[in-house]
């Protein structure tokens, strides 16, 4: 079943068309990757899906609902979570607090109940802490729960960012260059980690990545951008043998 459908999404910044007529379907349980040179419009595609930018034209349909232009927090609640190309964490807060804050999208108490710490809120807060600790344990981060986010090694910060995204209970996880700056060993570890969380949390995944081993090893389908336009889409082997792609990207790119 189609979980996400993007129909002719176009994003213009003044005179620049960053993405033009972007079409995509991600079915439940699929991993789809978006590749292409820097500046091709990949992050902009993510930004349209999560309404960081409302598309100039076109539609984003998630779970049969038109979410085009919806508030970002509502999009999160409907089940789309993302990570960022440049890690975004609350640096001075602990690992646990970082996950707790992400968890708060699901708190049902109102402002008064929260401010006065009424019983309903206290109960919810306790549940949130337990849920966050469970999540950290499942992801193997429990020993680091009281460490400051910035004190973690880079690979663990990336994992924590994914943990924060998972805390919102997504159906679809968007990963923007999750292996950026990683060495081959760390990249292999992350590949295994992504496979693991996909199964554990029943996810569909849309990923932007430059590490081709990772892209080819994980993806059911790949879409290739150049100058904001889709120049190819297909299975990993179709993409690896596509002459346009080799010329535009694979042939010239130094993988690592
Ligand atoms: N907020 C913005 N305002 C103006 N131009 C932007 C904005 N965001 C991205 N762009 C431009 O859109 C193009 C695509 O950028 P981006 O989506 O970040 O590419 P990629 O993620 O593939 O490297 C680039 O030319 C970039 O400068
Ligand atoms: Mg980008």
TrEMBL record:
Name one process (GO BP) from the record. L-alanine transport
Q: Does the keyword NAD apply?
A: no
Q: Which domain of life is it from?
A: Bacteria
Q: Where are the transmembrane segments?
A: none
Q: Name one Pfam family in it.
A: BCA_ABC_TP_C
Indicate the segments forming the ABC transporter domain, all copies: 4-252
What are the record's GO terms for cellular component? Answer: plasma membrane
Keyword Transport listed? The answer is yes
Which terms does the record give in the GO molecular function aspect?
Answer: ATP binding; ATP hydrolysis activity; L-isoleucine transmembrane transporter activity; L-phenylalanine transmembrane transporter activity; L-valine transmembrane transporter activity
Q: Which UniProt keywords apply?
A: ATP-binding, Nucleotide-binding, Transport
**Database matches in PANTHER family:** AMINO ACID ABC TRANSPORTER ATP-BINDING PROTEIN, CONSERVED COMPONENT OF ABC TRANSPORTER FOR NATURAL AMINO ACIDS-RELATED
Q: What is this protein identified as? A: Branched-chain amino acid transport system ATP-binding protein
Species this protein is from: Clostridium uliginosum
């Amino acid at each position: 079943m189609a979980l996400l459908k993007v129909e002719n999404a176009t994003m213009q910044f003044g005179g620049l068309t960053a993405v033009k007529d972007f079409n995509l379907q991600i079915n439940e349980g699929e991993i789809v990757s978006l590749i292409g040179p820097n500046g091709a419009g990949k992050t902009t595609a993510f930004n349209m899906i999560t309404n960081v930018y409302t598309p100039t034209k076109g539609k984003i349909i998630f779970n049969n609902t038109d979410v085009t232009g919806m508030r970002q927090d509502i999009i999160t609640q409907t089940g789309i979570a993302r990570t960022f190309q440049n890690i975004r964490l609350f640096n001075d807060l602990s690992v646990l607090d970082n996950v707790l804050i992400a968890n708060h999208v699901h708190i049902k108490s109102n402002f008064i109940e929260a401010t006065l710490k009424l019983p309903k809120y206290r109960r919810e807060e306790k549940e949130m802490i337990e849920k966050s600790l469970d999540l950290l344990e499942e992801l193997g981060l429990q020993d680091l729960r009281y460490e400051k986010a910035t004190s973690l090694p880079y690979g663990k910060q990336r994992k924590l960012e994914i943990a924060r995204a998972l805390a919102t209970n997504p159906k679809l996880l968007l990963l923007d260059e999750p292996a950026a700056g990683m060495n081959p060993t760390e990249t292999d570890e992350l590949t295994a980690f992504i496979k693991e969380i996909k199964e554990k949390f029943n996810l569909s995944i849309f990923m932007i990545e430059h590490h081709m081993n990772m892209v080819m090893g994980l993806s059911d389908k790949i879409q290739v951008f150049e100058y904001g336009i889709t120049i190819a889409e297909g299975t990993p082997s179709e993409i690896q043998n596509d002459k346009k792609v080799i010329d535009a990207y694979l042939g010239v790119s130094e993988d690592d």
